[in-house]
């Protein structure tokens, strides 16, 4: 049985790309914002890994991850942040919550798969 990945990003192109790269190996669920992602989680769904964009409208990646990590239900789900921000490592280091992994956009598909496997 395939492990489930929840991917949260407001960029449709990135969602399609990630789905294409990962769908052979994983059950991929895509949501285009943190609000929809939380609705999906609140319906009782439990992915093995969450991959979220750092910069999203409405409910940015940092707020989304913070809510995941303070939740009693979801805090143990590994989270990877993706971002095109040039200062991503610095932003991650300043966050008040622990980020399990992060990757800079653009990324190499094999590097992404390796990072996901390490989180699993």
Your description of this structure?
The structure is a single chain. The protein is an alpha/beta fold. It has one domain (3-119): 3-Layer(aba) Sandwich (Rossmann fold). The protein contains five helices and five strands, in the order βαβαβαβαβα. Strands 2-1-3-4-5 form a five-stranded parallel β-sheet, sandwiched between helices.
Which terms would index this structure?
Rossmann fold, 120 residues, alpha/beta, 22% strand, 5-stranded parallel beta sheet
* CATH architecture descriptor: 3-Layer(aba) Sandwich
Low-pLDDT runs of 5+ residues are none
Give the SSE string: EHEHEHEHEH
Number of strands: 5
Q: Major sheet, described briefly?
A: 5 strands, parallel
Helix residue percentage: 40-55%
| Helix count, DSSP H or I runs of 4 or more residues | 5
Beta-strand level of the residues, as a percent range? 15-25%
Strand order of the largest sheet: 2-1-3-4-5
CATH class: Alpha Beta
Provide the gyration radius in Å.
13 Å
What number is the mean pLDDT?
92
Q: Give the terminus-to-terminus CA distance.
A: 14 Å
How do you describe this structure in short?
The protein is an alpha/beta fold and 120 residues long. Helices cover 40% and strands 22% of the residues.
């Amino acid at each position: 049985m395939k492990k489930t990945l929840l991917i949260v990003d407001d960029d449709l192109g990135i969602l399609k790309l990630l789905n294409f790269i990962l769908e052979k190996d994983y059950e991929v669920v895509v949501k285009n914002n943190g609000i929809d992602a939380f609705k999906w989680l609140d319906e009782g769904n439990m992915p093995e890994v969450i991959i979220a964009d750092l910069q999203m409208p409405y409910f940015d990646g940092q707020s989304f991850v913070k809510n995941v990590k303070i939740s009693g239900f979801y805090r143990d789900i590994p989270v990877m942040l993706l971002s095109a921000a040039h200062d991503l490592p610095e932003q991650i280091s300043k966050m008040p919550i622990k980020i399990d992994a992060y990757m800079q956009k653009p990324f190499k598909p094999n590097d992404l798969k390796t990072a996901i496997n390490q989180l699993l």
